[in-house]
Write a structure and sequence with these properties.
The protein is of the alpha/beta class and 186 residues long. The chain contains 7 helices and 9 strands. The chain has a single domain, classed as Rossmann fold.
Length: 186
């Protein structure tokens, strides 16, 4: 039996990682894809858990060998997902979660039209702006660039199978709604 591949899409800081981490505690025989990146490891992250951290040269070799089902470059760093990793996990687990950006999800859907996509949307753009400031990632200009990208990403939500609004302070409601989608599709 082959598992279900579920891709979470949405802007930075909307709660995708928290949501997947919570789902992993309640969905049986589920796992999360670990993608590869060339960005620097942040405090608290672990190689092989949060990402597979590789050099640009290593990433380019993997990409050029055709091993990636999707890849993109953001803010000077590469991100990608190995097709072989997806296939391995889908043969071992009932549900495989992935967190991808808009373009990555589009690329996967071209090659795996049976994948399910769930767009996580913020209830309020001000929440996203505040979270970007709280994270303090990058310069003020980079945070503004990320915020402008959030608006672009929100406009792409109708492209995906499901849209769930993550209201600040109502996380369990969001978990419940997504869980219903996951259970219907798995």
């Amino acid at each position: 039996m082959r598992g279900t591949f579920i891709i979470f899409v949405g802007p930075s800081t909307v709660g995708k990682t928290s949501l997947v981490n919570r789902l992993l505690t309640v969905v049986s025989r589920a796992c999360e894809m670990t993608t590869i990146t060339t960005r620097a490891m942040r405090e608290g992250e672990k190689d092989g858990v949060d990402f597979h951290f590789v050099t640009r040269k290593e990433f380019e070799k993997i990409r050029d060998n055709g091993e990636l089902i999707e890849w993109s470059e953001h803010f000077g760093s590469y991100y990608g997902t190995r097709r072989s990793d997806i296939d391995t996990f889908l043969s071992e687990y009932n549900t495989v979660f992935a967190i991808l950006d808009i373009n990555g999800a589009r690329q996967v859907l071209e090659k795996m039209p049976d994948a399910l996509t769930i767009f996580i949307k913020p209830a309020d753009l001000e929440d996203i702006k505040r979270r970007l400031e709280e994270r303090g990632v990058g310069t003020k200009e980079e945070r503004l660039e990320r915020f402008l990208r959030v608006i672009e990403e929100i406009n792409a939500a109708p492209e995906f199978h499901h849209t769930v609004i993550n209201v600040d302070g109502e996380f369990e409601k969001t978990v419940s709604e997504v869980l219903g989608i996951v259970r219907d599709c798995s």
